[in-house]
Amino acid sequence: MDARTHPVDVVPPTASRPVSGRAGTLIRTQGLTKRYGTVTALDQLSLEVWPGVIGLVGANGAGKSTLIKILLGLLPPTSGSAFVFDWDVARDATRIRQLVGYMPEHDCLPPDLSATEFVTHMARISGLPANAARERAAEVLRHVGLYEERYRQIGGYSTGMKQRVKLAQALVHDPKLVLLDEPTNGLDPAGRAEMLELIARIGREFGIAVLVASHLLGEIEQVADFLLAIDAGRLLQAAPLTTFTHRTGVLAVEVADGTDRLAAALAGHGLQVRVDGRHVFIGLDDDRPYDLVRDTADELGLALVRIEQDRHRLEDLFRDAPEPEPAVTGVEVAG
């Protein structure tokens, strides 16, 4: 991505200067609230995050899309404030949109244009000259895997190809941040894997900050290094992903059958055990349980399927978390 082709260094005359905050802040909100009549989409949301690949996770209806539209200046908040790169979304929406690419969730592509025509048009809207816009369109379409198909009309594209066009137009003006709203929506497993790899490359190879919204926790685990979890419009957690997926002091053992027999035998050796379905979870104070599990399974004639140190999962966050608090959560991402 060549930043020289992106005219974001000129501040519009009407724009205010960035509000003073902690240097390098990517997104910052304070008491952000959005109501639609009697429905509260965002409820006193306060957070502060730094550049990286940020996963915005929550169930459908949790407020993810509402937050993204407010950050883009497309939707006014009911109360509270929000800043992107320390620019106020209420006053500096035009400046923010120069710096940010947006991939919406729903299909919004013109069916009678080719991918080249559409992405070039989006580049021109962003301020690129005609020749530079065509070159950038070709570059990003090659990056997303549509170079050979770029002259076909979008109406004849598959769902996966349309998602790639949406990603290309979000990248064509060489943004500093891209907001991706459910980017794997409607894709089959192979298409999901390819899209997630593209997202990872955006942050890894081009150094562009990414906020990817998804209701699929497994996808966030694959690409993000930081997690924003919201539930019913309120902040549930904001922290590096490793906070939730680090190894625990528990050994997870799975056997084909005989789970209860294995658990009873291991308890007889003085180990602390817990049975959950086909799994036996064992307190891990030292390496002794590894040999005991192996030897006990052999003595009982049980087939070991899996033995490994357990990890916290993102699912545990939503299953076990207390009621979310609206307090400010300021956490830093290395990026």
Explain this structure:
This protein is an alpha/beta fold and 335 residues long. 33% of the residues lie in helices and 27% in strands. The chain has two domains: 3-243 and 320-330, P-loop containing nucleotide triphosphate hydrolases (Rossmann fold), CATH 3.40.50; 248-311, 2-Layer Sandwich (Alpha-Beta Plaits), CATH 3.30.70. The chain has helices spanning 64-71, 93-99, 115-125, 130-143, 159-171, 189-206, 217-223, 242-245, 259-268, 288-300, 314-320; strands spanning 27-36, 39-49, 53-57, 79-84, 87-88, 100-103, 177-181, 209-214, 226-231, 234-240, 247-255, 273-276, 279-283, 304-311, 329-330. The strands form three sheets. It has a six-stranded mixed β-sheet, sandwiched between helices. It has a five-stranded mixed β-sheet with strand order 5-4-1-2-15, with helices on one face. A hairpin with a 2-residue loop joins strand 4 and strand 5. Helix 3 crosses helix 4 (130-143), helix 4 (130-143) packs across helix 5 (159-171) and helix 9 (259-268) packs across helix 10. The two termini are 17 Å apart. The model is unreliable at 1-22 and 322-335 (pLDDT under 50).
